[in-house]
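Q: Structure tokens for this one, please.
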Amino acid sequence: MKIACLCPTYGRPRLVSNALACFLSQDYPQSESKFLILDDAKQIADQDGDNWHVYSASKFPSLTSKYAFLVDRANEWGADAYCAWDDDDIYLQWHLSAHVEALKINGWSHPKNVFSLFTGRLHQESAAGRFHAAIAIRKDYAERIGYWGVSKRCDYDQEIIRKLTAISEPGRPDQTRLPSFVMRWGSTGANHCSVHSTDPNSTSWYIDTPITEPGYINKLEPKMDQETKEIFDIFNA
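A: Here is the predicted structure, written as tokens:
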């Protein structure tokens, strides 16, 4: 199964380097996976890696329009499925392979539990109705819900989960394995949109998003930050 990881980003190139490092650490075959990054802050140059690509662009009107762009690029590559991939969270090595196992049976995949650093220490919490960044969707199911659409609601992530749940219950990538998604909440100093806005119709989280990290990257290099290294070390021990 060819699975495309979709990473829309704005104003945080260092976190993108970390997200890329997580992707390149996956145990799923690289020939069957692609990491697609859309940077509409123009802080990262348009470039190709062996199985990843950065698209540098002017600012998009909404986060869902960024996903729509990335889905089109994924379909050009021939994707069978899509995996949401936030720039500010941690994805452990078995994330893609666990999703693909579930997607072979189910139209979409979402863990029952995720790891969280909300308290400052790694623990598990329920993913019920939350954590869009931990989902994967098979192409036929994505077509049925209109992919990511062009919603300007800040709760678009919960809307997508509701639409998918109306079709079927998800496959559980953590049914036979530990969770592979780590929600970092505020430890990166960057806002999660669902945390940043409380009004479902708010647009401030993508219109007024600040440049969190200064600088420009001409050549993107995968590099784990210290927190990610520490989390990976726990499971590599």
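A few notes: The CA atoms of residues 3 and 81 lie 5 Å apart. The mean pLDDT is 91.
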